[in-house]
Amino acid sequence: MDINQLRCFVVLGDELHFGRAAQKLEMMPASLSRFIKLLEEDLGVRLLNRSTRNVSLTPEGAEFLNEAKAVIAHFDALRLRFRKNNVSQKKTLRIGAIDSAARGLLPALLNIFVRQFPDADIHLTEDKSYSLIPRLASGWLDLVFIRPPEQVDVTLTTRFITYESFVLAVPAGHRLVDRAVVSIDDFCDEPVIFPERRTRPHSHDLTMNLFKSVGRYPVIAQYAEEKQTILSFVAAGLGVALVPSSYKNMNADGVKYLPLVPVENVEGLPLSVMWHQGNKNIYVNSLLNILADNHDELTKDL
User: Fold this and answer.
1) Under 8 Å CB-to-CB from 58, ≥6 apart: which residues?
2) What one-character DSSP code corresponds to residue 248?
3) How many other CB atoms are there within 10 angstroms of residue 301's CB atom?
4) Cα(113)–Cα(197) distance, rounded to whole angstroms?
5) Rounded CA separation 224/227 (Å)
6) At a CB cut-off of 8 Å and minimum separation 6, what does 59 contact?
7) Strand locations in the chain, DSSP E?
8) Residue 207 contacts by C-beta under 8 Å, 6 or more apart in sequence?
9) Whole-prediction pTM value?
10) For residue range 193-244, what is the model confidence (pLDDT) as tens digits?
């Protein structure tokens, strides 16, 4: 839970109408609905009664609304007081990124950026795409590096960056560890640690498409959501897994990473950057320009 989630809920709690609240917040109703759902899941309580005709507060929602207003008022007063007392405060660039972008693209990109803007205060939030996009839409983040969603809020702009390549993660004692490169035929009968499609649709579909390319269906050993959990299962010998190439330099005990022979018509994992349309923030636009000007160098190893 963060302050921007509270702001969204307060506006919706006052309006009791997703369309009007979304308009005030300058975001799409669907994005606001997802944002509120994430808040309810985080709290473990239902705040709103929803029907096709109206929206109303649950008893818990009414109580939470009053408390949220008090928290926001205190937060704003505190921020205003310290901003007045610190006129030289650094400007902040708030970036959201999926795990592979935080590991692969951003270190080199930010290295160039901070040389141009040494006084910038950079805040990085690492999370999944479906969690980062609502935070961008609500204004909590300035730009995000994500897997592109099927539908995009009309207030947001998306730019494709590249397809990230992928490698096969196997247990350290696996029969293939001495291979310089492997093909899908080499492990199509192996049990696979599978990413959840609900939270990692691109990784899930990529794995499925690889097996379909040889007319096979994967032997699913275990579903897992977090990359670290997937790698832990691999290390324990429960199966193999496909992960972004940026993980090949990760020091994961008991796991080895093997390059794959490219498969025709199976592209890698799409990586895009997303920001608010018409954003005039000098940091945002400068970072986007640096990315465009140095695109080939920044993406050659992804």
Assistant:
1) 45, 46, 47, 48, 49
2) G
3) 13
4) 34
5) 8
6) none
7) 48-50, 55-57, 92-97, 121-126, 143-146, 156-164, 166-171, 191-195, 219-224, 241-244, 255-259, 269-276
8) 192, 194, 195, 218, 242
9) 0.64
10) 888 777 777 787 888 888 887 788 888 888 887 777 888 888 888 888 888 8
